[in-house]
Design a protein that fits this description.
Helix content is 30%, strand content 17%. By secondary structure, it is an alpha/beta fold. Strands 3-2-1-4-5-7-6 form a 7-stranded mixed sheet, sandwiched between helices. It is globular and about 40 Å long.
Length: 217
Amino acid sequence: MSDSDDDVPTLSAHTLAALQEFYNETRTAQDHGTTPSDQFTVGAVEEDWRMSQFWYSDETAAKLAEEVIREAGEGGRIACVSAPSVYQKLKQGVVDGSDRVSSVVLEYDRRFAAYGDDFIFYDYNEPLSFAASVAPQSFDIVLADPPYLSEECLSKVAQTIKYLSKGKVLLCTGAIMEDLAKNLLDAKMCDFLPKHNKNLSNEFRCFVNYPSRLLSC
């Protein structure tokens, strides 16, 4: 990350209010003995189309969480890059094996700072701008969902992925990015079809660079 305050985006009044509301809801849940999984419900932080945010359906988030848990292995580390709904599903404790892995969420949206040390601020325009605590090749698998369907965005996110991952990559993006995903990450399109809570106009697919059950679902 940059040390300059000029590089850190300021929060709008709307975003600050949303973050405060989320903190309040989390505190209320804790006060009433609500289970921790409720704090990580997919959609607990509302989508903001201005930041190209489209959350996965609960079923897709669970499927992707199962995949990264399996591929990370016992004690594995998982990075969710611009994919907060998968991070949330991992933290709910409802997917088998989620207690045997650790995960972080890399996001531009500072509302996710409510997740404490698991939150890493991320701006794809500065793909390698991380604190010293984020070591290279320190994650067993990286799941990334670039916010925009453009060559520029995917190319920069690919730099991030290569920096973070020990090797395994699960990329979620538009089908039109198939050739670029292959060229940049040697990732193949899967048969598995991810779904969103709101239908997208572009066909959306998953890509992996390792043998995966998602390849032939």
